[in-house]
């Protein structure tokens, strides 16, 4: 009697291993996507808080920074006066937006924002965040 496995037995084991690997990959991928979305939303929340904090600090320093829409990554000109980008003003270093805008009301609160952080676009309005992954080109 010969010892060993038949080709059918080996193929059956490979198919089962492939199915298990596929199920594990899908589960891990979903967890990673959920973690990335949470990380991006947290970065957006921190950025918006930093913008609002900056307007509180400016108000306390009696420097005039008017309500309006500010670009996050380039200079802003509002009522003929030039202001730094929101990225420079907030001092955020990691996961800061590379593009977008922030609209601040008279009370120094962010009313709406559109931020591009990594490959994600974050829209903020009415205290709600909507995250969309941008297609890579």
**Rg from C-alpha positions?**
25 Å
- The gross shape turns out to be rod-shaped
Please tell me the total number of domains: 1
Strand order in the largest sheet? 1-4-5-6-7
Strand content: 25-35%
Helix and strand content put the structural class at: alpha+beta
How many individual β-strands?
A: 7
Oligomer designation? single chain
Amino- and carboxy-terminal Cα gap: 60 Å
Order of helices and strands: HEEEHEEEE
- Largest sheet at a glance? 5 strands, antiparallel
Helix segment count?
Answer: 2
Helix content: 40-55%
How would you describe the overall organization of this protein?
43% of the residues lie in helices and 26% in strands. It is rod-shaped and about 95 Å long. The chain has 137 residues and is of the alpha+beta class. The chain has a 5-stranded antiparallel sheet with strand order 1-4-5-6-7, with helices on one face. The protein has a two-stranded antiparallel ribbon with strand order 2-3.
From the structure above, extract its key features.
single chain, 7 strands, five-stranded antiparallel beta sheet, two-stranded antiparallel ribbon, about 45% helix, 2 helices, alpha+beta, about 140 residues
Quick recap:
This protein is an alpha+beta fold and about 140 residues long.
Helix and strand layout, with pairings?
Elements: H1 7-60, E1 68-71, E2 76-78, E3 81-83, H2 86-90, E4 99-104, E5 110-117, E6 120-125, E7 128-133
Antiparallel strand pairs: 1-4, 2-3, 4-5, 5-6, 6-7
């Amino acid at each position: 009697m010969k010892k060993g496995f038949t080709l059918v037995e080996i193929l059956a084991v490979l198919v089962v291993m492939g199915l298990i690997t596929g199920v594990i990959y899908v589960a891990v991928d979903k967890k990673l996507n959920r973690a990335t979305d949470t990380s991006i939303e947290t970065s957006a929340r921190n950025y918006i808080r930093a913008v609002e904090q900056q307007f509180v600090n400016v108000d306390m320093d009696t420097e005039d920074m008017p309500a309006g829409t500010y670009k996050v990554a380039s200079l802003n000109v509002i009522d003929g006066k030039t202001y730094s980008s929101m990225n420079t003003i907030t001092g955020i270093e990691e996961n800061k937006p590379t593009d977008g805008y922030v609209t601040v009301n008279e009370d120094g609160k962010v009313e709406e924002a559109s931020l591009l952080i990594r490959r994600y676009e974050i829209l903020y309005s009415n205290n709600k965040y909507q995250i969309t992954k941008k297609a890579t080109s």
